[in-house]
Amino acid sequence: MTQTLEISDDLMDRLESHCEEGETPEELVEELVAMYETEGAFLQEGYSE
Predict the structure, then answer these.
(1) Does residue 1 fall inside a structural domain?
(2) Buried-most residue among 4, 16, 28, 30 (CB within 10 A)?
(3) Backbone angles phi, psi at 11, to 5 degrees
(4) By its UniProt entry, which InterPro entries does this protein fall under (predicted)?
(5) Can you tell me the mean pLDDT for 16-30?
């Protein structure tokens, strides 16, 4: 089952700016979700516990 998610044009522009060559925004989101599920949280540059 496919779900549709509405996002603002600004957010789409931001996503597209982070895509590697040939990568779609959908693929980027899938990669980010997989990273979050694996690591439990996104790592922030310069942040450590």
Answers:
(1) no
(2) 28
(3) -65, -40
(4) DUF7557
(5) 95
